[in-house]
Amino acid sequence: MIETRNLTKRYGNLIAANDINLKLQEGDVFGFIGPNGSGKTTTMRMIATLLNPDHGEAYVCGKSIYTEQTEIRRLVGFMPDFFGVYDDMTVIEYLEFFAASYRINGPARRRVCEEKLELVDMSFKRDAMVNELSRGQTQRIGLARTLIHDPQVLLLDEPASGLDPRARIEIRNLLKRLGEMKKTVIVSSHILPELADVCTRVGMIEKGHMIVDGDVAEVMRKARQRILLNIAVKARTDDAARLLEQCDSVEAVKIGKNQLLEVMLKPQIEDYSDLPTALVEGGFAVKLFREEEVNLETAFLQLTKGLVQ
Fold first, then answer.
1. Same domain for 229 and 180
2. Which of 66, 90, 113, 175 is the 20 to 30 Å CA partner of 299?
3. 8 A C-beta contact, residue 31 and residue 6
4. Which domain holds residue 262?
5. Based on the domain organization, do 179 and 126 belong to the same domain?
6. Residue 41 class from Cβ within 10 Å (0-12 exposed, 13-18 middle, 19+ buried)?
7. What confidence tens digit (pLDDT) does each residue in 226-241 have?
8. In this predicted model, which residue has the larger pLDDT, 219 or 137?
9. What is the CATH number for 268?
10. For 13, phi and psi rounded to 5 degrees?
């Protein structure tokens, strides 16, 4: 559905996007992660044919961004991070205006607009003036507008930017529904928890370079340099710590809050089945034994260096 090959954009001496290679299939929800100024928006605008690259190629549904721009724009819905609304229109009039621009005419126009309002849970605001909407409601109307022509590909640039916690949750739920509809979605963000439970794939970009690109589990594996275990025993925590320090697979043991043992394994160690056995044989009652999960935020910090343009 989307493929980029060495996609590059320069502004003088600044390389905003540097040899971006990406391949997404139907139904992929791709989280494009990076700090402000890292190249996310530039890359998305090139894919949307709104910005010409200096080098490289990109295809959307098999169509080239150089020779088939009109066809691509029919297939793509692009939602910028900031967009204007028309103050003298109601919500339904606003959507009908954009439906008309896509040549959706007759009774079909009102039907399509009503369907998109229902999809984004904004039917109750159909007759409200667009300038009276909250920031979160405006974002949802913007998403409805992006979906008016039923695009196969969605490019959403910071859709949850500036929203309160409830509105961000609503946007995340909408993104999940779009993935279930088999839309191919690129959604950018610099707020990592927004994307952790939504995306099937993630890419991390820093200073114009794609640092990592893969499915969520693969990125987590790359980020996890070694395993950290959380262990709790019923009594004699200090003795349990000393016992674990003697195990060959253990690099370090620390006693944290509430007498929780934080056990760092040596690099490349994947099998730690000997540890609970050693504790039980040592006479310790094990209350908790779990592997600490690597979340998307931890992965980002592990795999990037904090560089900006």
1. no
2. 175
3. no
4. 225-293
5. yes
6. buried
7. 788 999 999 999 999 9
8. 137
9. 3.30.70.100
10. -85, -5
173 Cβ neighbours under 8 A, 6+ residues apart: none
Pair (157, 77) in one structural domain: yes
pTM over 0.85, yes/no: no
- What gap in Å lies between CA 110 and CA 113, rounded to an integer? 5
